[in-house]
Structure formats: structure tokens, C-alpha cells
Amino acid sequence: MEPHDHRRGMTPSSPELGHCLGNAAPSPTESVPCSKNLVRFSVAMPEDLLIAFDDLVARRGITNNRSEVIRDLVRDALVDEEWDNPEQEIVGTVTMVYNHHTSDLTETLDTIQHSHYKRIISSMHVHLDAHNCLEIIALRGKSEDVRLIADALLGTKGVKHGRLTTTTTGKYL
Ligand code: NI
Fold it and tell me: pTM for this one?
């Protein structure tokens, strides 16, 4: 697979990127890796959308500011894009809760996991009480494979609640 570069060939001198701030140390409110150049650009949006955005920034706490929240949103979009490519190597976690007394359930979940041991890189089992179990499974592989494994686990009869959390290897962020 082609290594993909989300910067799409733009360099800090590209006019689209505006003024490059160089490697100056970030301000206390800017949590940006020092190894990456910061570039300023202006954004136009409807006023009511900006008001709603600022409310979102405020809800994220005092360490956040517009720039940090925009960076997070862009990274979220890029991770979603990685997942949209079935061939892309991604990372995800499956979280599920089930009653281990349910007939065949534990065995079925175990069989699925053994069938995909190369893609399941870690798992944690928590006995929540006398009946309920919490299982957290970390997966790494092509997004289509990870989705299939997650669907098989979460679709197993008797799983009370479960969710696939989609994240990234971090290589392209
Ligand atoms: Ni248990």
C-alpha cells in the first residue's frame, strides 16, 4: 500500500498554509509537538457556528483553545478516513460486557479470539461481579478485518453491551 501523507505535499511555504511560525516553543495553552512547525491560517464561518464552536471549546476545559480543538477535529476526520480504507492498517478496541453463565457464550467468544490471534494484540478480562464480565480487546490489522472481528464478537448472542472504538496506529498523525 502507498504510504499516504495527509499533508498532501504541502510545505510550510505553501500559500495555503499561511504564515509559518517556525519551531518557536508553544504557548502554555498550545500542546503541540515542538518537532512540528506551527502554521497560522484564517477560517471563515457563520457567526452562530462560531458561537457554538466556542461553547464546545469551553466544555473541553481550560487547557483547550480553538486551535487545539480544531487540531483534534482534523485528527478525528483523518482517523475516520483511515478506517474508510479497508486496506489501511488501523488499531481499535472492543469493549463488551456479558454474563459468563450464558450458555456457550464464553466458549464462542474464546473461539472467535483464537481464530484471530494474529490481529488480537492484547486483552483484559475483569470479573465485575459473580455473573458479569467486562472484556477489553485491542485489535490491529486491516480495517475491514478488524471490523469483521468486532462484529463477530459484539454480535455474539448474550453480549449485553459492546462497542468498537476506532483509533489509529498514529503513523500518519
Ligand atoms: Ni469474568
Answer: 0.74
